[in-house]
Amino acid sequence: MSEMILCPYCKEDIQRDAVKCKHCHEFVSSKPPVKTNELSDEKFKAILDLVGKAFIPLVIVVLVLALKPTLVDLFGKTTSAKFLGVEISFDKSSGFQGDLTPLALYYLIGSADGGGNRYEDEEIKKSVKELASKDLITTKIEETTEGSPEMKGTWVVITPTEKGKEFLANMGVTVK
Question: Tens digit of pLDDT for each residue in 138-153?
Answer without folding.
Answer: 888 888 888 888 888 8
